[in-house]
Design goal:
Blueprint: H1 6-15, E1 37-41, E2 64-65, E3 79-81, E4 87-90, E5 97-99, E6 101-105, E7 111-116, E8 122-124, E9 129-132, E10 137-139
Antiparallel strand pairs: 1-2, 1-6, 3-10, 4-9, 5-8, 6-7
Length: 142
């Protein structure tokens, strides 16, 4: 299950409670307008800190852009990603990757969601590929 970083929880709470002037809702700090990114980590992310990002050939620091829009939540349904095509990373680092968690970030690296992968840590040997199938990440509030 995906978690909400503390900064996002505060953003949501402040925008939906009377924290603004004269008891009005506060403001919501919007994310950068470019494609969101999936960042892979070798350690677990937490509400207060992102995990330790993977390094090495085959992985782009900062994460990989999500290629298409996900279906918007309706009646509280979860949002899944990636939406239309899988995301893949081929390990060319010379060693084994140990993938524990992900962070979903905006293009300026502000985190919106995080979570451990099922079966983590996932070992990806040099020359092998880690793929997130369409809909592999499900983000919801329940």
């Amino acid at each position: 299950m995906a978690g909400i970083p503390q900064s996002m929880a505060s953003n949501i709470l402040n925008a939906t409670t009377p924290t603004g002037t004269s008891g009005a809702p506060g403001t919501f700090t919007a994310f950068a307008g470019s494609a969101m990114k999936v960042r892979l980590n070798s350690t677990s992310s937490t509400a207060s800190a992102q995990g330790t990002q993977l390094t090495g050939t085959g992985y782009t620091a900062g994460g990989t852009a999500v290629p298409a829009a996900s279906t918007a939540s309706s009646s509280g349904s979860a949002v899944t990603l990636p939406a239309t095509s899988a995301l893949s990373w081929t390990n060319g680092s010379g060693g084994t990757w140990s993938i524990q968690s992900f962070d979903l970030t905006d293009s300026a690296a502000a985190r919106s969601w995080y979570g451990d992968f099922n079966g983590a840590p996932i070992s990806i040997a040099n020359g092998n590929t880690f793929t997130l199938a369409v809909g592999a990440i499900s983000i919801g509030l329940s």
